[in-house]
Amino acid sequence: MKLLEESFTLPPDMYHVQEVQVFERDSDAITVLAFHSTSFHKETWEPTLEALFEALITNGLGKVKIREVWAVDCPNHGHAGILNREVLKRKEFATDFSCERYAMAIHRFLLGAPKCFGVDFSKRRLVGLGHSLGANALLLLQGLQPVFPFISFIIVEPMVSPGDGHDLDKLRARLVESAKRRAFEWPDRETAFLSLKEDRRTKRWDESVLRTFAKHAMAESPSGAVTLACTPQQEQAMYLDVPGATRPVEELTRLCSLLPVHLVIGLKNDFMYGAPLSSPFKMLIYVPISPRVVHERLLDPASGRIYASVKEVPDIGHLIPQEIPKKLGGLVHELLALIMERQAKL
After folding, report:
1. C-alpha to C-alpha distance for 90 and 250, rounded to whole angstroms
2. Buried b (16+ CB within 10 A) or exposed e, 84-99
3. Residue among 344, 254, 280 at smallest CA distance from 39
4. In angstroms, how far is the first alpha carbon of the chain from the final one?
5. How far apart are CA 103 and CA 243, in angstroms?
6. What is residue 301's DSSP assignment?
7. Are 296 and 307 in contact (CB under 8 A)?
8. 3-class SS at 263?
9. pTM, full prediction
10. How far is it, in rounded angstroms, from Cα 159 to Cα 291?
């Protein structure tokens, strides 16, 4: 299925699925806000969203009513990172760009939407969808005033530490070192794409995700080459954000008692806390604590966190949107159906 694209001057690119535009004025329809992980970009969600809308059409338009889906770049990633490149060189941003700043940028986007492009998110029925860093930012967003009316959350592989915050120290140090040393520039986008496709780690990404990465996660340099939109310096700053791994857990615990929170985790030990990690190019990282330990802490009933559902995906690790976007799209459709069914009973 091809999405139809309509571009604004600087506010967002809009993609329309003609079959579901019927919900634009439906008061029951939901608006999904999607946030991405570190070193990626908002368009990472496109393959998942295409699968979501395919499932929506296949399973009937009445079961899940989606008014719109909005995906927002972290300000130092993707096209936002390109637009903000000079600003990001300032001292206050160059070495201190946190998960909280992503949450604050999202909040500012939501506040400015009525004036900028005529969308009042305070009057929408919002569902949050976040992966890794994006999941953390989504959680932190709930602590910012004024609070927007989310009715539920889908949290995919949050990059959190339910312990004392030091569980990730060794991982953090290795991620920083990897960001310093990894490839940053290629002659052109096609060369970058082919490099990604052949790398033994990134070749597991779905080809559509690889294409979006080469198109949207890279900027053209004056020499004609392409470089990563999220610079190594900015990526390092994200990894050095210690509170960004612990404060979201506090929000998660609070939110689980207020709203339905759906947790999606991968069962394969391939990224965050064990076995080798590739950052996404070539550098291997080894870390001591297994994802199973972190997942068990997230799911510990003694923590007070009770989830609306927990989806454990076999044979996949941390990079669920990158490696199995079609399957994730179907799973998101399933969860949205549960969310709407619950809302209908309220």
Report:
1. 31
2. beeebeeeebeeebbb
3. 280
4. 34
5. 13
6. G
7. no
8. strand
9. 0.89
10. 10
